[in-house]
Amino acid sequence: MVHHALSIGKIHGLSATSTPGGVFCILAFDHRQSFVKLLDPSGLHKPTYPEIVEAKSEVVRVLAPHASGVLLDPVYSAAQLIANQTLPAASGLMVSLEETGYEGDPHARVSSILDGWSVAQAKRMGADAIKFLVYYHPDAGEVSERLEALVCQVVNECRQMDIALFLEPVSYSNNPQVAKESQAFAEMRPQLIARIAERLGRLGPDVLKLEFPVDAQYERDASKWAAACAAVSQAAPCPWAVLSAGVAYEVFAHQVETACRYGASGYIAGRAVWKDGIPLPTPNRIAWLENVAAPRMEQLADLASRYARPWTDFTPNLPSSAPQDWHLTYPA
Description:
This protein is α/β, with parallel strands linked by helices. It has a single domain (about 10-320), classed as Aldolase class I (TIM Barrel, Alpha-Beta Barrel). The protein has helices at about 10-15, 35-40, 50-65, 80-85, 120-125, 140-160, 185-200, 220-235, 250-260, 270-275, 280-305, and strands at about 25-30, 70, 90-95, 105, 110, 130-135, 165-170, 205-210, 240-245, 265-270. Strands 1-2-3-6-7-8-9-10 form an eight-stranded parallel barrel, surrounded by six helices. Strands 4-5 form a two-stranded antiparallel ribbon. Strand 2 (about 70), helix 4 and strand 3 form a beta-alpha-beta unit.
């Protein structure tokens, strides 16, 4: 295992987005296009910008108190929910960096940073951490190399700004004959996620936000779930948290428990928690969030608090104080 020496800003960011016990129980709510589609599943009424912001505010208002941190996007929610005082002051704020989707061939995907947005801007507006999503396959040749260079760029910018980085590599099939949703891809998935964790983890992110390494549609054997998560934990040189990827909530709850029992440092939960309530009319949506989604967040937090490995395990020599005159050498 690699132990990383953390700077003071990164310590703050990881502490702000985790529980007092060092476990990530984060609400993922930086969705853009997918969220707009949920608001209008019929496609008959395109939500306006104020309607999207208000819907995002409703969700965060109800669910943020049940999370250790909140992941928001710069387009509809990060500054907006600070300005309207929806985001609780006690919530750790993580802001996404990437452009939605990808460019290029579906089997050689190219990720990018949102135009007009940067690590420095997120830091200045009050973010405690950065989230950067990239589509990645280690065997995509030159595309993989370009992506790794982009990740290194973001890693360096986060170091310069002294802000924590959560890197989210999303896998895809680099073979046109094998769909990601297929059983053939599912059979490759455990080894692929472990390879991604090792390869991108070595580039220097503070936390990896990873897909569950087993496709529950094809594999229900609990021992194989456990082995796959243990392999990811062995491969990753930094803490990792499991993402929900829009699976059914009951499935995700089992994934969180297994991932945390076998080395994960928590979860970053999105659609699995809140997607079913978004198409409802506003009063019904709020009631659903309070009665269904909030208890889901509480259940997930309980699982993570019992089983997850604290991120502080990866930094056993965390300073309990700063040396005298530390500010004289702190980068300007």
